[in-house]
Amino acid sequence: MSHPRSEQARQLWKLVEPVHAITYFSPEPLAALKAAGYRGFWMGYFAGRAAPLGAAPAEVVHALFHNFAFATVTRALPDAWSFAPPTAALDARTQGTTATLTRHLGDAAANVGPVADLAIRAATAAPMEGRALYAANRSLPVPDEPVARLWHAATLLREHRGDGHVAALTAAGIGGRESHVLHALATGAPTSVYETARGFDDVEWTAVLDGLRERGLVDGAGGLTGEGRARKERVELQTDELAATALDPLSDEELAQLLRLLRPIAASVVSSGEIPAKSPMGLDLGDAEAADAPL
Question: Which of 11, 147, 235, 267 lies in the 20 to 30 Å Cα band around 80?
Fold first, then answer.
């Protein structure tokens, strides 16, 4: 039986994903990670996102992040921890993302307390079982400052959903690198997105495509078969259902209010142009359900 709020869970993801993603793309968090001592974009990325786990080795981060090539992870970890400890990465990402979100919100930053409180209620009450990356972030103190609390809530909800997505992919027999190719074929996302952001080259892309073809998920022309489309749809539906468990603490009225209050915030982030419209995160910002929502 499907969760009655699975559709709202997908709507929520489309709104919190842009808010969370400023930590990877906006100038303030990138500068803060650099100032902390991390060298280059990818070392900062892995240090910032993995920091809630402590000084985790590459193997653990590779397993939890799921879709990076192992060689990509090992170029950043564990070396990052010799430049600055995880606590420095945590401080940098919190300070940087709070500064970015405050800049995007402008005068409306003073009024985010209610939406931050609603979001953090859902985010901290979500089930932790089987969701290691969410649980690591859940172990961190909840910020007192409302804008920082809002970003923390968005991150918790995003990583909670992400852990469930990895579980759904694993149950469907789809590996991390395969998930990128499957998603690109399902959505028409250009391969260049994955070449730049996930280190694919033509050889690896072709090898993954051939493997999916051998399993009956890709046809001879390089498109998804009926089974390929069905499996992708099952993964997405299961991801929504697993994510919807975070919404149980909210009443129908509170959930509707949370979605309404988040729309202009997500719109302000999307309209800045700082986050790529298409990325391996899976969300097409043209479908972010935030367009033309004024603050």
Answer: 147
